[in-house]
Specification:
Low-confidence stretches: none
CATH class of one domain: Alpha Beta
Radius of gyration: 30 Å
Shape: extended
Order of helices and strands: HHHHHEHHEEEHE
CATH superfamily of one domain: Glutaredoxin
Number of helices: 8
Distance between the termini: 109 Å
Strand content: 5-15%
Structural class: alpha/beta
CATH topology of one domain: Glutaredoxin
Number of strands: 5
CATH architecture of one domain: 3-Layer(aba) Sandwich
Largest sheet: 5 strands, mixed
Length: 246
């Protein structure tokens, strides 16, 4: 009878199945064109003064009057928007002025301004171009519109033209999918765009004579492109199709 030592000596090695190799892949990092960490610059530091002008100060008071005294902080967002409209962008001094007005620590205002991308933390051009590139707009040609804008103005997404007139960014979603593709210029929407009509819109702003906002295809608001398909006749009056004895 073999000893345990002999058994171990003559044992056939057992091959264990190695676990399947798994490759780990990383998607590319999507870099944002927005600034979320403050860096002092010549025109954006705590020593730069900002005050609401006389007109906007009155508007600020009207905004604050809508909130109970103990809830002044609820006015942070509209006041930041007001400051951005006056200066053109949301600088550190703008945020500090709003914090002082609503009597909260400045950090509370910084938190709001860095969370919402509607607040531009860096200077932007006179005409702020926000092109929607979400799925509905992309299916309707927003990629071509983006290439057209970049080529015509000579800038990339996140850049401003040398004359300071145009800044281009991508956004999701403009909320006007039925009129895709959509380009917002400041507060106005230009819809149903093609590369040709996009150039016309840009040229009109270059000449400081903006085209009328809305669909650039000729249709009225968001009616069907092929024309109305329902309610095309005079509406019927009361009692239509109702039995006479009722």
């Amino acid at each position: 009878m073999l000893s345990s030592r002999s058994l171990l000596k003559h044992a056939v090695p057992v091959l264990r199945a190695l676990p399947a190799r798994r490759s780990i892949t990383n998607s590319c990092i999507a870099l944002s064109d927005k600034l979320f960490v403050h860096r002092d610059t010549v025109d954006n530091n705590a020593s730069v003064k900002f005050e609401f002008n006389e007109y906007n100060l009155e508007r600020a008071k009207e905004i604050l009057a809508k909130y109970p005294h103990q809830y002044k902080k609820g006015a942070i967002m509209p006041l930041l928007d007001l400051g951005q409209r006056q200066l053109g962008w949301t600088s550190l001094p703008v945020m500090n002025a709003v914090a002082k007005m609503v009597q909260v620590p400045p950090m509370r205002v910084y938190e709001v301004a860095t969370f919402y991308t509607m607040y531009n933390r860096e200077p932007v051009g006179k005409y702020f171009l926000q092109l929607c590139t979400t799925t509905p707009c992309q299916l309707c040609g927003s990629t071509e519109i983006l290439k057209t804008i970049e080529s015509h103005l000579g800038i990339q997404v996140g850049e401003t033209t040398k004359d300071g007139k145009f800044t281009l960014v991508e956004v999701e979603c403009a909320g006007a999918c039925v009129n895709a593709p959509v380009l917002a210029v400041n507060d106005d929407y230009y819809e149903d765009l093609t590369p040709e009509t996009t150039i016309k819109v840009l040229e009109s702003f270059k000449a400081n004579k903006p085209l009328k906002a809305g669909p650039q295809s000729g249709r009225h608001t968001c009616e069907p492109k092929g024309g109305l398909t329902t309610l095309t006749s005079e509406p019927t009056g009361p009692g239509f199709n109702i039995r006479s004895d009722l």
